[in-house]
Automatic annotation (TrEMBL), chain A:
<dbReference type="InterPro" id="IPR016155">
    <property type="entry name" value="Mopterin_synth/thiamin_S_b"/>
</dbReference>
<keyword id="KW-0547">Nucleotide-binding</keyword>
<protein>
    <submittedName>
        <fullName>Molybdopterin synthase sulfur carrier subunit</fullName>
    </submittedName>
</protein>
<dbReference type="InterPro" id="IPR003749">
    <property type="entry name" value="ThiS/MoaD-like"/>
</dbReference>
<dbReference type="GO" id="GO:1990133">
    <property type="term" value="C:molybdopterin adenylyltransferase complex"/>
</dbReference>
<dbReference type="GO" id="GO:0000166">
    <property type="term" value="F:nucleotide binding"/>
</dbReference>
<dbReference type="InterPro" id="IPR012675">
    <property type="entry name" value="Beta-grasp_dom_sf"/>
</dbReference>
<dbReference type="Pfam" id="PF02597">
    <property type="entry name" value="ThiS"/>
</dbReference>
<dbReference type="GO" id="GO:0006777">
    <property type="term" value="P:Mo-molybdopterin cofactor biosynthetic process"/>
</dbReference>
Automatic annotation (TrEMBL), chain B:
<dbReference type="Pfam" id="PF02391">
    <property type="entry name" value="MoaE"/>
</dbReference>
<dbReference type="InterPro" id="IPR036563">
    <property type="entry name" value="MoaE_sf"/>
</dbReference>
<keyword id="KW-0963">Cytoplasm</keyword>
<dbReference type="InterPro" id="IPR028888">
    <property type="entry name" value="MOCS2B_euk"/>
</dbReference>
<feature type="binding site">
    <location>
        <begin position="125"/>
        <end position="127"/>
    </location>
    <ligand>
        <name>substrate</name>
    </ligand>
</feature>
<comment type="pathway">
    <text>Cofactor biosynthesis; molybdopterin biosynthesis.</text>
</comment>
<keyword id="KW-0808">Transferase</keyword>
<keyword id="KW-0501">Molybdenum cofactor biosynthesis</keyword>
<protein>
    <recommendedName>
        <fullName>Molybdopterin synthase catalytic subunit</fullName>
        <ecNumber>2.8.1.12</ecNumber>
    </recommendedName>
</protein>
Length: 85, 380
């Protein structure tokens, strides 16, 4: 199984907790959505809000129960609960 | 046309939007304007800040546009503007507007689009309150995640589930548990699991005869307490970790397998039948029948055979009729006395006393002379 380097975007609460708005992460190219979220929460210090987070891959929401096939340079956005409007 | 924009530190001009919407074929424009409130749960809001995942937000807005165009094909122009950055109180933070030939489509589509925007466009709002330097990131109630169990307490509207005071009266039955949701869920699950294991064990106890191993150790086991009909002795197989060998199966016989079960059941059902409504009548009829029989001098050979008894009575009546035809006429006329008077029957009937007098008269005439005899013959 190959390993890929992906870009990570942080917003709102997660940006404040991680202290950055953009980062990179190295992960297996095939991974379950919730596993990826666990790894990211662990790595960027988001465990306290982990259960309220959603992920978007290249600007599309993903289903956390499904398997992702990631490519080098993919962009994962960590999306806390939204409050637009 | 779809007009989508994220505005940074720039006011939304409603007049501009109105001109964007206008179209000669449109009779209706619906404009929703979301403005910033100055209070939240009695706290005074002094500033609001919006932040967005710009590229994805614009994508999602475009998706919403194509969705509502699919649902309301008559829509002409759609405008979705959202402000970002600091927005002072009472200013418009979002505008969603649609124009259409008729008002229904315009109004419906705007309402739908507002809900969609609140539930999927990645924009975040932070409220900064008076006397609270650290702001709070808000959560739209339309946001599909996180699922309920992880939502903060402030998210719930407790007015929907009011607590009543009867909790206090049952206090000995209620335990207050101060744990997190996940811990509470875990405890409930393990309780359910333990109960399941308990039930399963009891089922196996029922099924197995503990006689052999437990009785020896002085543990009494009430067989009658078990509802299992088959009891087995299970032995662990040698060289196997899981397979159990059935050593003996003892089937306890249920009532339906007993020898004379059907016969007994039949009797029970028969008895049940006798306690029916007819019973009293039947007894009554039988006694009446018996009275008739004794009056007619009959003796029933089989008391339970009603048909035979009736037949005997009929035979007796026929016999009476054949030996004395007047008997029948007398009965008929006696029962039908009134109709006989009306019909003024021409047939002469004689009663036994008349016949007696008649015979006496004949005897007298035979002894005294022929004149009386001719007189009596004319009356016949």
């Amino acid at each position: 199984m190959s390993v890929v380097r992906i870009g990570i975007l942080f917003f709102a609460k997660t940006r404040e907790l991680a202290g950055i708005s953009r980062g990179t992460f190295t992960v297996n190219s095939v991974v379950i959505g919730s596993d990826l979220l666990n790894q990211l929460s662990q790595f960027f210090g988001l465990n306290s809000v982990r259960d309220s987070l959603m992920l978007a891959l290249n600007e599309r929401y993903i289903n956390l129960n499904e398997e992702l096939s990631l490519c080098e340079g993919d962009e994962i956005a960590i999306i806390p609960p939204i409050s637009g409007g | 046309m779809d007009y989508l924009k994220l505005l940074n530190n720039e006011k939304i001009n409603i007049l501009d939007i109105q001109s964007l919407l206008s179209n000669e074929s449109c009779g209706a424009s619906a404009i929703f304007v979301g403005t910033t409130r100055d209070t939240f749960e009695d706290k005074k809001v002094i500033l609001l800040e919006y932040e967005a995942y710009d590229s994805m937000a614009l994508n999602e807005m475009a998706n919403i546009c194509s969705e509502i165009r699919l649902r309301w094909p008559s829509l002409k122009n759609i405008v979705i503007y959202h402000r970002l950055g600091a927005v002072p109180i009472c200013e418009a933070s979002v505008v969603i507007a649609c124009s259409a030939p008729h008002r229904q489509e315009a109004l419906d589509s705007v309402g739908y689009a507002v809900n969609q925007l609140k539930s999927r466009v990645p924009i975040w709002k932070k409220e900064i309150y008076e006397n609270e330097p650290i702001g709070t990131w808000k959560i739209n109630k339309e946001c599909p995640w996180p699922t309920n169990k992880h939502r903060p307490a402030s998210w719930y509207n407790f007015n929907y589930c009011k607590f009543t005071n009867n909790l206090k009266t049952n206090s000995e039955k209620i335990v207050q548990i101060g744990v997190t949701d996940s811990e509470f869920k875990k405890r409930v699950e393990s309780f359910v699991k333990r109960k399941r294991v308990e039930i399963n064990t009891n089922n196996i106890m029922d099924f197995k005869e503990l006689h052999n191993n437990l009785m020896d150790k002085g543990v009494s086991y009430a067989l009658d307490a078990s509802c299992a009909r088959a009891q087995t002795v299970l032995l662990k197989q040698q060289n196997s970790k899981c397979l159990l060998k059935v050593h003996r199966v003892k089937n306890r016989i249920g009532p339906q397998l007993q020898m004379n079960y059907l016969l007994e059941m039949h009797k029970l059902i028969k008895k049940q039948d006798q306690i029916s409504d007819h019973t009293k009548n039947q007894i009554n009829l039988k006694s009446r029948l018996q009275i008739i029989e004794s009056y007619m001098g009959l003796i029933a050979s089989d008391r339970d055979n009603l048909l035979l008894r009736l037949k005997n009575i009929e035979n007796q009546i026929l016999f009476y009729e054949s030996s004395s035809p007047e008997y029948k006429h007398f009965c008929n006329n006696f029962l039908d006395h009134k109709s006989r008077l009306i019909a003024n029957s021409t047939k002469k009937t004689c009663q036994a006393t008349e016949l007696g007098e008649f015979i006496q008269a004949i005897k007298l005439s035979l002894s005294t002379g022929s004149s009386a005899a001719t007189k009596s013959q004319s009356s016949e």
